[in-house]
Write a structure and sequence with these properties.
By secondary structure, the protein is of the alpha+beta class. 41% of the residues lie in helices and 17% in strands. The protein has 3 domains: 94 residues, Hypothetical Oxidoreductase Yiak, Chain: A, domain 1 (Orthogonal Bundle), CATH 1.10.1530.10; 190 residues, Malate/L-lactate/L-sulpholactate dehydrogenase, NADPH binding domain (Ribosomal Protein S8, Chain: A, domain 1, 2-Layer Sandwich), CATH 3.30.1370.60; 40 residues, 2-Layer Sandwich (Wheat Germ Agglutinin (Isolectin 2), domain 1). The strands form 3 sheets. It has a 7-stranded mixed sheet with strand order 2-3-4-11-5-6-7, sandwiched between helices. The chain has a 3-stranded antiparallel sheet with strand order 9-8-10, with no helix packed on it. It has a two-stranded antiparallel sheet with strand order 1-12. Strand 8 and strand 9 form a beta hairpin.
Length: 358
């Protein structure tokens, strides 16, 4: 088992900012990338947190990730826009795409945003959080162009990515509903985290390089590669296909239909639908019915092993509060990879270590 460091948020933020400057990023980009990754860790999604930086550094050195890139408008149809992310940091591209979409949805009542050619957009829930903060509902279909890592239902090898599906719904006077999940049974980064910790995965999540069930996370991380399976068997597979067609083929003009090329970059396409619920129906009626439903569901008596029913978004808020108080756990292997990324970017690893208090 790998040693676990627990790092307070502020020291970790300072350390990661120093590393991100190694990409040659301008101050705003440094802030957006750092905060997005740390927020992923704070919500408990370590698969999408600072542990992504080693892969980002490899993509940058290879030329597949461009620092200081911004969205480029390629179609402006008012309430329908198409954007090219120009292989820029997804933390910047996603933020700028959502700012444009939110502005248009506020003006027209709704907006469809087709985004392509963005480097890794990270936790898609972050973009839904931007929408609900402005009292908008958002729906996101996302695809992944990288090494295929997910098998189709009934298939014996990987054919596409984790293809997340995300919905954000603001709740007047309450916390928003934030549904954000990979259509695979888990995010690939969770296998990476387990592999780095020396842990096995639960049964039913992976197949090995011969298409047989396995609990060894190495088959999702290192060669010989196997694959992650879709959640809910054919149901998750069906939704993965929808995300590939809408987020990839439609929004990005780029779907996954070739074997791995060995490139380190991770590109995302995302189709986002934004709309203002207040302009669609009576705000009071929608709000009251929503709150009544949520209260009704949460009042269900808990089964053994549960303390209460949680609505999507609630576990992340609980984890964020806990980690803000106690710190963010980082396994020693992942931290070592981060220090290697710093060296790759010509940033002094000892300084990164010092700032983190390690």
């Amino acid at each position: 088992m790998a040693k676990i460091h627990v790092v307070k948020v502020d020291p970790l933020r300072a350390a990661i900012k120093t590393l991100v400057r190694g990409f040659g990023s301008e101050p705003r980009e440094v802030d957006l990338v750092t905060e997005n990754l740390i927020q992923a860790n704070l919500t408990g999604h370590d698969s999408h947190g600072i542990g992504m930086l080693p892969k980002y550094s490899e993509a940058y050195v290879e030329g597949g990730l461009k620092a200081n890139a911004h969205v480029k408008m390629t179609l402006d149809g008012g309430a329908m826009i198409r954007l090219d992310g120009q292989a820029g940091f997804g933390q910047v591209i996603g933020h700028e795409a959502m700012e444009l979409g939110i502005e248009r949805a506020k003006k027209f009542g709704s907006c469809i945003v087709a985004l392509g050619n963005s480097h890794h957009l990270c936790r898609i829930g972050a973009w839904a959080e931007m929408a609900v903060a402005k009292d908008l509902i958002s729906i996101h279909f996302t695809n992944v162009i990288s090494r295929p890592i997910v098998a189709p239902h009934g298939g014996g090898d990987a054919r596409f990515g984790t293809n997340p599906f995300t919905v954000g719904i603001p709740v007047p006077g309450g916390e928003p509903v934030l549904l954000d999940f990979a259509t695979s049974v888990m995010a690939q980064g969770k296998a990476r985290v387990a592999y780095n910790k020396g842990e096995q995965m639960p049964a039913g999540r992976l197949i090995d390089n011969k298409g047989k069930p396995t609990t060894d996370p190495q088959y999702a991380v290192v060669e010989p590669h196997g694959a992650i399976v879709t959640f809910g068997e054919h149901k998750g597979f069906g939704l993965a296909v929808v995300c590939e067609l809408l987020g990839g083929a439609l929004a990005a003009g780029m779907a996954c239909h070739e074997p791995a090329t060995g490139e380190k970059r991770v590109l995302n396409g995302m189709l986002t639908i934004l709309f203002d619920p207040a302009k669609l129906s009576s705000g009071a009626l929608f709000g009251n019915e929503m709150k009544a439903f949520i209260e009704w569901v949460k009042a269900s008596p808990p089964q053994p092993g549960f303390d209460h029913v949680r609505i999507a978004g609630e576990p992340e808020r609980e984890t964020r509060a806990k980690r803000m108080a106690e710190g963010i756990p980082v396994d020693d292997t992942s931290w070592g990879d981060i220090l290697e990324a710093a060296e790759r970017l010509k940033v002094n690893p000892a300084e990164v270590n010092r700032l983190a208090g390690l």
